[in-house]
Amino acid sequence: MRLTDQQLLQQTPLYAELGPAVADRVFRNAVVQTVRRGGTVFHQGDVATHVHVLLSGQVALIAEDITLGPTIIEFFPAGEIFVAPAGLLELPHLVSARATEDSRVLSMAAQELRGLIAAESALAVAMTRALARHWRLLVRQIKELKLKSASQRLGSYLIAKAPVRAGATSFRLAEERKMIAARLGMTPESLSRAFAQLKTAGVSGRGRHIEIADVSTLSAHCRFEEGH
Q1: Are 23 and 51 contained in the same domain?
Q2: How far apart are CA 93 and CA 86, in angstroms?
Q3: Which domain holds residue 19?
């Protein structure tokens, strides 16, 4: 592992929860690779042999259907451990993981990790916390798909990306709009209509640049729940 990778690892929530002594044992045999934008970390259907931590960049979890084609389930930012359950249960991946920008990915052998979880209580607690966060994330997705309109889902997504929770703000989205549409369960055309509908709630901008006149007003419109 390069010195820069070690420094990135030390900034992750998992490392912080473990502490240096336990982390050194957990990550001793881990390997780090560069995955270029558009490259695949693992494929849907492959039996999970490793558990991954994203040190830098971003990955999209993609579900692929032979009839409907691919759709994006979620984006994971740097610092996250992602799709650990398949490795912990020795099961096939339910999704593929693809880099949306050049990324550094740390991989731990799943079999070794299972043994370490049994031996290191700090690791067991940290993994439980990570899995709990991801469970809440997926439940929020289900709630929004079932209970909110397309424009409300988009608004909630934009608020989660915004740097503030009140007042005016502007920022640049990391993802292309077609990728956001897939993540929100829309077609690109539906996303365009949702953006148009949010103009009355103070949302404007072109391409990846977004402006929100008042985040609180948009939050009320979308019934936004903190904790995304």
Answers
A1: yes
A2: 6
A3: 3-145
Tokens of 128: 């439980």
Q: Are 210 and 154 in contact (CB under 8 A)?
A: no
For the stretch 19-70, pLDDT in tens is 999 999 999 999 999 999 999 999 999 999 999 999 999 999 999 998 888 9
In sequence order, the 6+-apart residues with CB closer than 8 A to the CB of 28 are none
- CATH code where residue 166 lies: 1.10.10.10
| Cα–Cα distance measured from residue 61 to residue 80, given in angstroms and rounded to the nearest whole number | 13
* Residue where a domain terminates, one of 110, 145, 180: 145
Residue 105, helix vs strand vs coil: strand
Model confidence pLDDT, tens digit, residues 180-215: 999 999 999 999 999 999 999 999 999 999 999 999
Exposed/middle/buried for residue 115 (C-beta within 10 Å: 0-12, 13-18, 19+): exposed
Which residue shows structure tokens 């339910």?
Answer: 94
Record the pTM.
Answer: 0.85
Contact by Cβ (8 Å): 54, 82: yes
